[in-house]
Structures are given as C-alpha cells and as structure tokens.
Amino acid sequence: MLVKRIFNNNVLLAENSEQELVIVGRGVGFKQKIGNTVDSSKIEKTYYPQDENWTRMFNEMADTISSDYVEIASHIISTAEKSLGLSFDGYLLIGLADHIQFAVERLQKNLPIKNELLWETKHFYPDEYRIGALAVAFINEQMGVQLPEDEVGFIALKFVEKRAGPNFNEKATNMTQLIESALTLIRHDLLPDIDSSNLNYQRLIVHLRFFVDRLLDESHVQKGENSFDNVMS
Questions:
Q1: Rounded to two decimals, what is the model's pTM?
Q2: Which class does domain 1-48 fall in?
C-alpha cells in the first residue's frame, strides 16, 4: 500500500492494487512522502471508494475542506460505530466532514442555523442524539469553538439518515409529523400534565416510534396493510 497524497499527519490517500483509499490514523502521514509504503501499524480507519462518484466527491472535498475536518469526522464515525454496533459507508465521511466545516464557519461568522426538529430528534432518536452530543463536544474541543445544541440534532440526523436508508427524508418527515400529532392529542385530551422527562413518557415515544415505523413501512403499503386496524392487529 503506497502513499498517493498527504493531507496532514493523520490523513492519507493511498493506493492498493490500483485502488485508491483514504486512511486515517494518528501519525500515519508524519514524515511520509509520495510513493512511500504506508505504516500499517498506524492505520485506525480505512475508507474504500463506494463507486466512481464517491472517489470524485472525495477528491473535490479534499480541495475545499480542511483535512482536520476529515479527521474529526472519522473519529466521530468510529465512535458511533462502536456505540451503535453498526458500520457506515464512506459517503458519511464526506457528508459529515462537509457539514462540520460549514457549521464551524457559520458559527465564526455569527450565522447559526436554528434546528426546528431538535426536540423531536432528541426524543425520537435518543441513541443518535447521544452520538451527536459526543460529536459536538469533540468538535468544540478540537476546534476551540462552542457549537450550539442545535448542531447536536443536525449531526444526530446524519446517523439516523444512514441507519434508515435512502428513503429516509420522506419517511422521517412523515414519521415525525405522525408522532408529534399523536403526542399532541395525548397531551391535550388525555394527559395534560404529562412530564416529558418521565420514564413512562420515554417508553410511550419508543412505542409510538416503532408503531409509526411499521405503519409507514413500504412492505405494508405494498400489501395494502397500512391501515391503523391492520397495524394494531
């Protein structure tokens, strides 16, 4: 495996059997030169191209995004994979690095973006929200900034999107609207004094989330099993 491009001391573009790959690891690029053999003992994470489009997008990103953000994104992805017990594709590295740089630059320009789905993300996707909180804390530490809580939700949704698949955006929007409508009815008509921090409330959200997920599942829609009666049976 040979060094093809050096981004910084911790991020390399390498070539292995005529295939390009991105390598992240502490000191993996330190004192390296183009054409040298990569020190495999320093490799922490490897990203193989998903397709030609991924390679093109990464090369474009490398020209516009600081490699520091690539390194930060890789660390967050590794943390998420260990915590969630999942593997994420290389497109998340590109999207997350781009998002982090965008968020930091907007903060520095005093142009924060309000996250209108922060409450829903926090309550409907607690595992991903926890990853988002860890990510923001790490970004703040590495970049010397103080990103707002809104960014916790934005980053959390990056992982929700990758877990849910390519049809996430439409499905997640419908899911959020249905769950929020159900909670509104419950709060107004049944339990006006319900405490959102109560364990039973958290359990209610989990049940609603799985119920709505099943309701919206394409397999049920295709079979004509998308009515409330069929789902409840």
A1: 0.71
A2: mainly beta
